[in-house]
Amino acid sequence: MDKKEKLQALNEDWSLKNTCVLKKTATQAVFGHGSANAEIVFIGEAPGKSEDEQGIPFVGAAGKFLAEMLGDIGLKREDIYITNIVKYRPPNNRDPEPSEKEACAPWLYEELNLIQPKLVVFLGRHSMLNFFPDLKISEAHGKLIHKKFKHIKTEYFLPLYHPAAALYNGGMRDTLKEDFALIPKILKKIDAPNVVA
Ligand code: URA
Hints:
About 45% of the residues lie in helices and about 10% in strands. The chain has about 200 residues and is of the alpha/beta class. It has a single domain (about 5-190), classed as 3-Layer(aba) Sandwich (Uracil-DNA Glycosylase, subunit E). The protein has a 6-stranded mixed β-sheet with strand order 1-3-2-4-6-5, with helices on both faces. The longest helix has 18 residues, at about 100-115. The radius of gyration is 16 Å and the shape is globular. Uracil binds near residues 44, 46, 47 and 62. Uracil (URA) binds near residues 46, 48, 57 and 84.
């Protein structure tokens, strides 16, 4: 099996054995989407209405904005991998409960450890808090974090504002675009951590 097939098998296996209660109300599991060989994995919070219907993450308005920002740095959705902390839509798009996040966490960690991206980008505070519960998104956004976790092979993390929150807020939108534009430089820095830019 190549990496792409392994990732597909992992997602199918988890969708069967997952015990998340949201399975009862969601239309389907929304698997991560994109390249199994991606250098960057983006992690959102949970699927919304369009994602639940189509079974693909970030296909609504926030997804279009994300695709636009990817284009600005010369990337397509197929070049990266996008997934969510929680793989099932919470009813009426409410925030996922801690137990729902816990039920999907090992699935997320296995995805990450199979892909082994250079960089994990958190889309929004909920995604960031899952890994860094003490940080504030208003202070942490756009700043590269280097941290070794026992259960994840990737060591570099970048928190960003959530595209859905920034979409209709002029100031936040500009900040998100500026932070996003840092990604190519950040990837170079990860490759040569001792070189001062
Ligand atoms: N917001 C998210 O956090 N994830 C999606 O898949 C869509 C919108």
